[in-house]
Amino acid sequence: MSLPYAPRFAFYDGKLQSGSSTSSFQTIDPATAKPIANIHTTTHAAIDSAIVSAQKAFPAWSATPPIERARILQRAAALLRARNDELARIETSDTGKPFTETSTVDVVTGADVLEFFANLVGGGGMNGETAQLRPDAWVYTTKNSLGVCAGIGAWNYPIQIALWKSAPCLAAGNCMVYKPSEFTPLHSTVLAEVYAEAGVPPGVFNVVQGGGEVGAYLTQHPSIAKVSFTGQVATGKKVAGAAAGGMKYVTMELGGKSACIILPDADIDQAVDGAMMANFFSTGQVCTNGTRVFVPEAMKSAFEARLLEKINHIRPGDVHDPNTNFGPLVSKPHYDKVIQYINHGIKEDKATLLTGGPDRPSFLSSSPAYHSGYWVRPTVFTSCTDTMKIVREEIFGPVMTILPYTSVSECISRANATQLGLAAGVFTRDLSLAHKVVAQLEAGITWVNTWGESPAEMSVGGWKQSGVGVENGKRGLRLGCGIRL
Questions:
Q1: Could you read off the pLDDT of 16-43 as tens digits, one per residue?
Q2: Structural domain range at position 69
Q3: Which residues are the active-site residues?
Q4: Which of 107, 171, 316, 354 has the fewest CB neighbours in a 10 Å radius?
Q5: Strand ranges in 90-210 using DSSP code E only, listed in sequence order
Q6: Alpha-carbon distance 286 to 105, whole Å?
C-alpha cells in the first residue's frame, strides 16, 4: 500500500542511510488512525556509525569561528521559515494538531530558537571571563564545545523540540545524534536536510530512528558527552540514571502538574481564558499545562458559568480546516490512558463532571474520515480535592480540575504539595500581590495573567522532579546542550 509520506531512515554522513535498518514500523495519523509512513528502526551498528560520523565532524565544526557557525544556522532558520506551511502540514499529519496551531507555533518558534542561539554565539556568547587577582596574576576562563551530544525528542512538539535541542548544541560547536519520538518521527530527516542545505557539514547533525531501545543504546554509548531529553518523569529518571553511570552531562525537561491560581481580585474573563489556554491548547498535551485550577470559593460559580460559555469556542474538526482549533490525542495508547483517567475521575474519585467526559466528540457523526481517530472531548471536573488521582497525576490531555480554596496562603500551600514543579500561573489585578505569590511558588516557570508563552529568550526548566538544567535563554547555551568551562 502506498503511504502519503516517504519512509524514514537514519541520517548520517550527510545523507539518508537506507541500509541502516533490519526492521520497521508505521507512524499513524492520529486524526484518522491510518498509517502515513514506514519508519525503519536504526540498528546498533548504524547508531555506532552515526556517532562515528559526528566524531569525525567535531574537530572542524568546533574550530569553525562562531560567527561562521552563526551564518550557517541563520540560513537554516530562514529555510525553515520559507518552508513553514509545508513543515506544519507534516507536523499536523504526524501529531494530529490542527494546522492553525502547527503553522503559527511549532515551526515558527523552533526557527526563533535557532536564530536566537546563532545570534548569541555570533555576538560573543562563547567568550570567557577574566579576573585580576593581583597585578601579576590573572584568571581567565574559556568556553569549549563538549563533543558529540544526544538529543532525545518528545512527541508533542516534534520539530520545535528538535530545534530547542540542536540549536544550542550546534551553535556551541558540538555535533548531535538526534532520536525523535517513535510516535512522531516525520520531521527528523526533513530537519536534517534543511541543516544540510544551509551548509551544516556532514556529521554535525545526525538522526537515528526507533523506540526506547534505540534511545537507551544512544544514552549509554561511551562516546556521547551529553544527553538532552524531553519526556515523562519515569523515562527521564531512567535516562538520567544511565547517563550518570557514564558521568555524562544531562538536561532533563520532564513533566508537570502545574497550578493555575485565580486570585480573588482576578478579572473573571481573563482568568477563564487563561485556564482554558492552560488546559486545552494542543489538546492538553503540553508539559507546562495548568491542570490544577485553584479558584476562590466565592468565585467558583461565576467562574464555572463563564467557562461553560467559552468552552463552546473550542472547535474540533478537520485538522486542515482554518476554523479548527482542537485536534485528537497523539496515539491509541495515549488515548486509552486519558480515557482511563476520565473514567477514574467519574467512578473512583467521584469528582463532579462539569462538562466533557469519555464519550466521543459529536462532530464525528458528520465526519466519517475521522471516526477511527483518537478524539476526546475537552473535560472539566469541579469541586475536586487534592487527594484525587486526577488531581495528583499528570494526565497530559484536555482534563481540567477545579479546586476551590478559601485563603491565598492555603492555596499556595496546596499548589506546592506536589513532587513536580515545572510551571505555575497567577491571575490577579494586583501585580504586587502577584509577585508575592510567585515568590512562594515552587515552580521553574510562573506566568502572570497569561499562560504558555515561551520565547527563545526565556530559559525553560523545572524544579523538583520536573527536570534538571534549562533550555533556551542565555543559560540554555551552557546548560541546554552546550559548553564546558
A1: 999 999 999 999 999 999 999 999 999 9
A2: 10-254+466-484
A3: 253
A4: 354
A5: 130-134, 137-140, 144-145, 148-152, 175-179, 205-207
A6: 13
